[in-house]
């Protein structure tokens, strides 16, 4: 099981649960999370989804061993939904989505915050968008959503530098709403989730729909641009070299 699901007081908590891989998304986890979000969207007993991770990582992003296998292994079998399916589910999710970043978030573990309605982050957590260090392009409409959230220059630094962003910096930028001590993170995120879940679901969904509708065309266009750039750069000399170096056994 790579994803655990728990319901309480109309809040469905999805916990990324691959601690041995720092909750990196392999094809199985992409599919499981996509299915879980779609199920929550359809379930009238669920008003809010809270997404977090287990262990010391929120998510280490896409499993880079699988990314390399996609390039080098002719027999690689992609999942049913994969990365693009998860981003579809996030973009279409009609209910409040709360992220509780318990540890470091890399790649999709950071860019997923562009789809969060509220984001909480532990004081010890950090974020990184490693695209330039891997020789690839941005993902998950982050080239559009991050400038909307944090301003162009903050977004440019995050997407171009491949440097770590502290919880305090993410809060200053406006990428996360509240920073909590690690032991307080989930209780605080859950407390706020339950406040929202106590409101009429139809009203929650109407608020979200009216807030996100103006962004839909921009998200779709950004994803098309990003996917085209990603396809162009994936497997390039820079990308292949970065992945090979990353996946080499460390002494």
UniProtKB/TrEMBL annotation:
Presence of keyword NAD: no
Pfam families per record: ECH_1
Keywords noted in UniProt: Isomerase, Peroxisome
InterPro entries hit by this protein: ClpP/crotonase-like_dom_sf, ECH/Chromodomain_protein, Enoyl-CoA_hydra/iso
Signal peptide: none
SUPFAM superfamilies named in the record: ClpP/crotonase
Location(s) in or outside the cell: Peroxisome
Protein name, per record: Enoyl-CoA hydratase-related protein
Originating organism: [Mycobacterium] wendilense
Lineage: Bacteria, Bacillati, Actinomycetota, Actinomycetes, Mycobacteriales
């Amino acid at each position: 099981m790579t994803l655990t699901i728990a319901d309480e007081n109309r809040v469905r908590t999805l916990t990324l649960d691959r601690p041995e891989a720092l909750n990196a998304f392999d094809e199985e986890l992409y599919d499981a999370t996509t299915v879980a979000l779609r199920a929550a969207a359809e379930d009238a007993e669920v008003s809010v989804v809270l997404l977090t991770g287990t262990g010391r990582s929120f998510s280490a992003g896409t499993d880079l061993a699988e990314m390399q296998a996609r390039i080098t292994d002719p027999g690689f079998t992609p999942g049913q939904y994969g990365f693009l399916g998860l981003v579809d589910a996030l973009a279409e999710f009609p209910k409040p989505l709360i992220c509780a970043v318990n540890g470091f978030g890399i790649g999709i573990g950071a860019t997923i915050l562009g789809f969060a309605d509220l984001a909480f982050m532990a004081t010890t957590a950090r974020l990184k968008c490693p695209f330039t260090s891997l020789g690839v392009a941005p993902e998950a409409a982050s080239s559009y959503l991050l400038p909307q959230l944090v301003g162009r220059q903050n977004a440019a630094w995050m997407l171009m530098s491949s440097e770590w962003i502290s919880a305090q910096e993410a809060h200053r930028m406006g990428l996360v709403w509240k920073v909590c001590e690690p032991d307080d993170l989930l209780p605080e995120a859950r407390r706020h989730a339950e406040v929202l879940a106590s409101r009429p679901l139809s009203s929650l969904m109407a608020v979200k729909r009216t807030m996100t509708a103006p962004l839909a065309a921009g998200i779709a266009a950004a994803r098309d641009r990003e996917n085209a750039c990603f396809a162009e750069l994936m497997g390039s000399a820079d990308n292949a070299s970065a992945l090979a170096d990353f996946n080499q056994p460390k002494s």
